[in-house]
Amino acid sequence: MSKRVSIRTIYTSANNRKRILIVVGLIALALFVFILRIAYWQKTRGTQYQNAIQDQGYYSTVGAVIPFERGTITDRNGTELALSRKIYNVILDPLVIKSYPDYAKYTFEALEKAFGTTQEEFDKALEQKNSNYYVLYKKQPYDGIAKFKELQTDTNDKNHKYIKGVWFETEYERYYPYGKAASHVIGFVNDGNVGSWGIEQQYNSYLNGTDGRVSGYYNEELDLVTNTWDAVPGNTVISTIDLYVQQVVEKKVEEFLDQYHVNNIGVIVMDANNGEILSMVSNREFDLNNPRDLVLTNESDGPIAEMTAEAKVTALNRMWRNFCVNDTYEPGSTFKCITVAAALEENLIAKNSKYNCKGMVDIRGYQIHCNQKSGHGDLSLTEALMKSCNMALMTIAEKLGTSTFRYYQTHFGFGEKTGIDLPGEAAGLLLDETRMTDIELATQSFGQGFNVNMTQIAAAYASLVNGGNYYQPHVVRKVINAEGATVYDATNLLVRRTVSADTSEFMQQATYMTVKAGTAKPAEVENYLVGGKTGTAQKLPRALKKYVVSFVGSVPANDPKYVIYVVIDEIDDKEVYNKSTPATKLASAILSDILPHLGVYPTTGEINYGVEYTGLIQDDEENPGTLEDTEGSTGELDGQ
């Protein structure tokens, strides 16, 4: 007889299976969600949990920070001027070394062979209680490190496995392969990778990178296990400096300073067509690898051992200071080029304008003399520059008037910073227009009564002779990162147009004649076409008869590619203290050596501009101009 199954039983069994399937499904879903969650935690918090687990073991502070490598500074051709060298600190872990008797013996022997460690040094390290971080040596070269690692991994020595508790921190030190070269442009680095002066300071944020880090722990066998996050290196700064040109200029300046004692001297060599500085020299260079090694910066400093702390700080700041950027002075007759160009632009004078110099002009009782007190007689505009005639320039400034004259001062960048990428640029000082009387207008026409810095004159003069383009002077071309990508570019720093091409061509002609047959003749370079203008400005107070002499020039004169500017502040020599001859001769010596390197080749013949002139200027620099009132008090002004 067959068994009968009730509908209720069938229903109940099916229901149970369904419930079971649901339960199994829910469990599977929960497991799936749990696995996904674990995967998510592993991805987002894996390091955190791993470190937490490691903290339960024997943790070490090994290499908590991996310092970044500060970026390199190169010259325009890729030669490294500043770089970072890797050095090492030798770190001991006394707790590990003391944890097993054999560790101390064999670890010491390895340290002794690799670094010359003495027993006294080693014992002192082990005296540290509850310490797993002891700096045994700092700033070690890699040779010792390599030797130690060789001993630690020498499988031929069965005791190598007992060399424990030693590891190495990596650091970087700044190194300057060429020592003093371009010291005022490059600057140096203080502790903490903080740049001081020069490019090191100005581009500090580009040169610095980001630290990495290391976490580590010792496993049950006391082997060090580490996790590393790499440091990001700093960027490479490619400067505009040409190392060869820089070293030539430095050598010539050193030779000059060996012959003469001066208050300051500065030389700038600039690309006339983009504002790049190829060389900038300020007084004597200092050792970038030891920037606080105070040498005798001038004869009055005296023996270093006898200097007070305050005197040493003063001497250091003087040694580091960049005269080409940080200081101002009255420009003297180099500014006459600006006055003439301004009047040409305003159509107040013509290239064939004529002037008559009688040697002196009286303005409201003040007698302002020319450098040629007997007078130059009749002059063309070109000859006025060639002979550096104050009378002609005062006549031109009178036509300009105070407002227009002041406009062109600012138009050429005076009274404000050029924006050169070096720290501490001085803006210079212009007399307020409301205070500029006819006397101030007269004297400022030939560069007295206001202050400039060297980069201002160099940039302004370059625009006069390059066709009228004023470029912002700069010492860095570009900055690139570790992958070679450009992160900063200075290839086009055109600021404004200053003069027309027609005025610029006249300035090329007039400055060429000034070197060929005028006051700047000592600046000539054999077989080269050099243009330029001299300056001899008398410093305040005038009665002390101290002078700033200078020369600014360009080459080739008919197609200027480079500008050179030499400024000498107070030559302590009775024969030449008020003459621009030392500046012109120094410029000639520098150009003779650097022009072939720069691809400017000799030329035959001369430029015939059809300018009539009375002959070579020989005596004008002997008698700087003076300002005298009717009662006979004298304050000397500018000669050339």
Helix and strand layout, with pairings?
Elements: H1 7-55, E1 58-60, E2 73-74, E3 80-92, H2 94-97, H3 101-115, H4 119-126, E4 134-140, H5 142-152, E5 166-175, H6 183-186, E6 188-190, E7 194-196, H7 198-202, H8 204-207, E8 213-218, E9 224-229, E10 236-239, H9 243-259, E11 262-271, E12 277-282, H10 309-320, H11 323-326, H12 336-345, E13 354-357, E14 360-363, E15 366-369, E16 377-380, H13 381-386, H14 390-411, H15 438-444, H16 454-465, E17 469-471, E18 476-480, E19 486-489, E20 494-497, H17 501-517, E21 531-538, E22 547-555, E23 562-571, H18 581-594, E24 626-629, E25 634-636
Helix pairs in contact: 3-5, 9-18, 12-14, 14-15
Spell out the key features of this protein.
Beta-lactamase, alpha+beta, Penicillin-binding protein 2a (Domain 2), elongated, 18 helices, five-stranded antiparallel beta sheet, 2 domains, 640 residues
Structural notes for this entry:
This protein is of the alpha+beta class. The protein folds into two domains: 167 residues, Penicillin-binding protein 2a (Domain 2); 316 residues, DD-peptidase/beta-lactamase superfamily (Beta-lactamase). It is 35% helix and 22% strand. The protein has 18 helices and 25 strands. Strands 2, 3, 4, 5, 10, 18 and 19 form a seven-stranded mixed beta sheet that branches. It has a five-stranded antiparallel beta sheet with strand order 12-11-23-22-21, with helices on both faces. Helix 3 packs antiparallel against helix 5. The longest helix has 49 residues. It is elongated. It starts with 6 loop residues before the first helix and ends with a strand. The relative contact order is 0.10.
